[in-house]
Amino acid sequence: MKQETKGILCLLSSSFFFAAMGACVKSIPDIPIAQKIFFRNLVGVIITGYILIKNKDKLIGSNIKLLTLRSFFGLLGVAANFYAISKLPLSDAALLNRMSPFFVILLALLFLKEKINSYQIYAMFIALLGAAFVIKPQFDYTIIPALIGLSSAIFAAAGYTSVRQLRLYSSPYTIVFFFCTFSTIATIPFMLKGHFTSPNYKELILLLLIGLFATSAQIFMTTGYRFAPASKLAIYGYTNIIFSTIFGIILWSEYPDLLSLTGGVLIIVGGLINYVSTNNQSPNSED
């Protein structure tokens, strides 16, 4: 099997597990968000910690400031995404969260001074138009969950932009371990202040599955990018939208309406334009 094929399979697996995580989050509406985030990351601490110790790698990276910044934005992104999942159809929450690559382009331009081409600008506008269709702005309280869902993409993009610099100092598993540890500790005060519910047997299993699926998704993503460059694989992350839509239809009969379908097509088209323009810009990216 070719290295790139292995990378594609890893990214598809990652997208499936992220969608499965979202389905678990939506399945336990009575559990506070802070508690869901705690379990999501506690399992991650255990699994990535074991991998780092087994590989005799560093648990703590050398750039604590950048690790903390990435973890802070990542935590905000997860919190916003979990809130959106609880209030919106699963497919809509996934669509809005998949706006993050376009915000990465913008943040990389503003803060890392990376150059972008005209096609990437077109891609951003098309994707933002798609997000507007998904949000369906009615200018009342119903727009809030959708805007929070979109903010999850902005926070995630800020975290990913930080990771670009962190890769110079820390291994991928060290970055994930620090993020999971940071998020686990950060959610404890919220649970102590009442954002905690004693889960029943079913809810406990789903909480543990949130952590298992999220960590599996992260590991598959990290492994995939070792087999092939991000420019070749990033487009497959959009399959998360398809998996999320399937889960939504099967579990909650959440059939996307025409506006969401139109928005989804526009976001994916924007992603394809960005993918093609990035690959044409860096033909030697496999080196």
TrEMBL record:
A GO CC term attached to the entry: membrane
Keywords attached to this Swiss-Prot or TrEMBL record, sorted alphabetically, are: Membrane, Signal, Transmembrane, Transmembrane helix
Membrane topology type? Multi-pass membrane protein
In the record, which residues are listed under signal peptide? Answer: 1-19
> What family does the Swiss-Prot or TrEMBL record give for this protein?
Belongs to the EamA transporter family.
| Domain EamA: residue ranges | 6-135, 146-273
InterPro entries tied to this protein: EamA_dom, EmrE-like
The regions listed as transmembrane in this protein's record are: 37-53, 65-83, 95-112, 119-135, 141-161, 173-192, 204-221, 233-252, 258-276
- Write down the PROSITE patterns for this protein, in alphabetical order: PROKAR_LIPOPROTEIN
> What protein name is recorded for this chain?
Permease of the drug/metabolite transporter (DMT) superfamily
Organism annotation: Maledivibacter halophilus
